[in-house]
Amino acid sequence: MPHLIPPAADLRPAAGVAARAARAVTPAGALGLGAPVRPRPGPDPGVWEALARPGVPLHWAVLDVRRGPGDRPDPVRRAGAARLRAAGSPAPVLGLLELCGGSRPFGELVADARRFLDWYDVDGFYLAHCPSDPGRLAATSRIARTLRALSDGGPLVLEHGTHPDPRYAECADQLVTFSGGWPDYRWSQAAPWTAGHPPERFCHLVHGVPGTHLDEALRIARWQGAGTVWFTDRTPCGGTAPWSALPGYWDDIVSRIGPGVSE
Fold this sequence. Notes:
This protein is an alpha/beta fold. It is 30% helix and 16% strand. The chain has eight helices and eight strands. The protein has an eight-stranded parallel β-barrel. Helix 4 (106-120) runs parallel beside helix 5 (137-150). The longest helix is centred in the middle third of the chain and has 15 residues, at 106-120. The chain is globular, with a radius of gyration of 17 Å.
């Protein structure tokens, strides 16, 4: 199974199947950032510029237009993803597919996936609001297998936001097992079954993390066995997601996880 966290020495090959395969390699033990940033109300090219800077320990970045690929190609977002690739980042760009808890029809998801591949040349997919219960496991597995085939084995991240049935781990490269606010995260616990998997299989997304508690948040992630994180001081406000911009302490978190401060 391909994984997500790219090795530091990975060289990005030409576009196409070989490129997607190279961006799906994951070494063990490297804590880094998964970027769910979805700028609202309009695209922010500065986000992609920041992600592309040398020294950013980026594991993957989500590309979202309107909870999916939109109804026509977006040149600004296409340029943003291209900027990340032009900078030589080996991190895969993942098209966001909204599962709505497993209620979206299979055909709609496949159509959205094809648009992402045709319009943005994404490397893999990020499945938002993925179901967690055993009853929807078979349907999710079918979607995952289809997306693998469409993307030539590209990486998959399932965003559950909580610990799902353990068998979901067989469907994807990485599971988002926490997505929520800092007060809940401070008292959260990892499900016992996660101890049987390496950290690169899990991601935590936490909003409202004060800068003064950044070290504590990183300790929690490591203790719970998460290899990918996104911590931000942003909070949900007026319908705007906390992932709509970079954290206010962007350089600080890059310096604490990566090899150097993003300048």
